[in-house]
Amino acid sequence: MHAIVKNSPEPGLSIKKVPIPKLGRREVLVKIERAAICGTDLHIYEWDSWAGSRIKKLPLVIGHEFSGRVVEVGDDVTKVDVGDFVSGETHIVDETCYQCRSSKMHICRNLKILGVDIDGAFAEYIKIPELNAWKNDKTLDPRIAAIQEPLGNAVHAIYPSDNVEPVAGKDVLVTGCGPIGLMSIAVLREAGANKIFATEVSEYRLRYAEKMGADIVINPLREDLVKIVLDETDSKGVDILLEMSGAESALLDGLKVVTPGGRVSLLGIFKDKISLDLNSEVIFKGIVIHGITGRRMFQTWYQVKGLLNIPRFRDKIKMLITHELNMKDIERGMKLLKSKEAVKIVLNPIF
Q: What band does 272 get if pLDDT is binned at 50, 70 and 90?
């Protein structure tokens, strides 16, 4: 089969012929219908410091967002059938560690990630554990089905546990309007948030923030985020901060406007260590901070399924698919993503 491969520790990708994966007893083989480019894929493409320190084995078939049809199942597979239309939970877990056995599989101690630790989805076929095959409604658009994984990140950031307070009526700040930040705005609007603030340095993506339902959009390079948020909330500040950018300045400004007793979800990945006044901005304000990685397995997937059953929400998410390319055009896709002239790029398995 053909696949997009990271061949060596330097910028760029290759299209190569590789063997179709052979299945283990509890694995399924999926024929890819659609895949989507993630920021992680761009890091690997550019071979930045994160990729250099994180990727342990090359060559590697990259990509982890996908949908497709099951074409073969292992001997011990019992819950997935040939012909099922599936998407993939990208966290491959051992099912035996303390975290897996205490309802925290998404932070498994021996976690492996598709397209990072093991071969991924930018190919004609992918193999995944039966556990990781999420069965979709057969009527779901394959393009939307392929981006449920990042949508799950957005939902997890908003609902990091079962006991967080409802979003309805709350003021929320989203810092960073990449795909997951934009998806979170759509989820917040559907959930009944009161006032949604969104920050982003790309004017292209700020326009999408408005389309997703943000009430006030802010370019922090030109405007005073702290002043605007405090003025618009009668100095109260926001109840919830969703930090999606990985920018130190966004985190520091965001914490300044979180109201005492508020909560914060951190999903953006920071390049360096952060210098932070924990006393003033967290401890004495009684702030609760959640680190967000992946999706809760599989509570978040059920939440995503419920949201996608709402036609107006499904249409909003579809709006974020700004480009549809063939896998042979991966270079163009990476350049579009790097320039922030795209939101979600969906790939057809055409080489």
A: confident
Amino acid at 244: M
Domain assignment present for residue 297? The answer is no
Nearest to 287, CA basis, from 243, 251, 255: 255
Let me know if residue 232 belongs to a domain: yes
**Residues 219, 180 share a domain:** yes
pLDDT at 330 over 90: yes
Q: The domain spanning residue 177 has which CATH number?
A: 3.40.50.720
Range of the domain at 344: 2-147+320-348
First to last CA, the chain: 10
**Cα–Cα nearest to 263, from 246, 284, 242:** 242
CA distance 41 to 115: 8
| H or E stretch covering 36 | strand 27-36
- The residue count of the chain comes to 351
Task: Give the pairing type, strands 216-218 and 344-348.
Answer: unpaired
Whether the predicted pLDDT of 104 surpasses 90: yes
- How many folded domains does the chain comprise? 2
pLDDT of residue 242: 98
Report the CATH number that the domain containing residue 62 is assigned in CATH.
3.90.180.10
| In a shared domain, residues 204 and 235 | yes
Q: How do residues 218-239 score in pLDDT, each as one tens digit?
A: 999 999 999 999 999 999 999 9
Q: DSSP string of 158-169?
A: H-SSTTSPP-TT
The whole-angstrom separation of Cα 335 and Cα 72 is 35
CA 145 to chain CA centroid, nearest Å: 13
How are beta strands 288-291 and 216-218 bridged, if at all?
A: unpaired
Q: How many other CB atoms sit within 10 Å of the CB of residue 166?
A: 10
- The residues that are catalytic are 40, 43
